[in-house]
Specification:
This protein is α/β, with parallel strands linked by helices and about 220 residues long. It contains eleven helices and six strands. The chain has two domains: about 5-135, 3-Layer(aba) Sandwich (Rossmann fold), CATH 3.40.50.2300; about 145-210, Orthogonal Bundle (Arc Repressor Mutant, subunit A), CATH 1.10.10.10. Helices cover about 50% and strands about 15% of the residues.
Length: about 220
Amino acid sequence: MSERIRVLLVDDQPLFRTGIGMLLRSQADLEVVGEASNGAEAVELARGTGPDVVLMDVRMPVLDGVAATARIVEEHGDDGPRVLVLTTFDLDESAASAIEAGASGFVLKEAEPELLLAAIRSVAAGTQVVAAGATRRLFERFRGRTATPGPEYDALTPREREILLRAAAGLSNAEIAATEYLSEATVKTHISRILSKMQLRDRVQLVVYAYEHGLI
């Protein structure tokens, strides 16, 4: 990731894009590298502008945010931009689908500017962001599809499994460190190894995996 966080802004409402664009451009560590009015434009611009974060609306013409997210994640892989979804409701079906498609989280359109900025920075740093109060209800959606954990889970050490469960329950690295009597640096290393062994993109996918496989 570059020194400044490169953001691609995607929304079909020009006035909303203008307002968010002004907010982002007022920050010394953020750079708006492009704006798109639909998902198809977003996919194309993601190829040419090299964003770190795609701020993605979910409901748009031509190609919606869920489909655009899936294409960007599939095309760019783990080294590609992180997608942060914008939604109107704190438990939006489209936002949940975008998480399944590979988005790193979602935030409400009505969120305070400081929260939106913090969410962009967090996603750029590899942390998941889910609108306050929605985490448990969002991932309860996946519980009904319980499958048996595969060899990727078997490859984890007992300690890594413990940390996976702590992370899936929503604990921060600091909270896991305090609970497991480890340093934050050690927890961060464990999380990286867990994601690598299980071939998961970020902590959001880790939480989805835990729910889908009945671990929590």
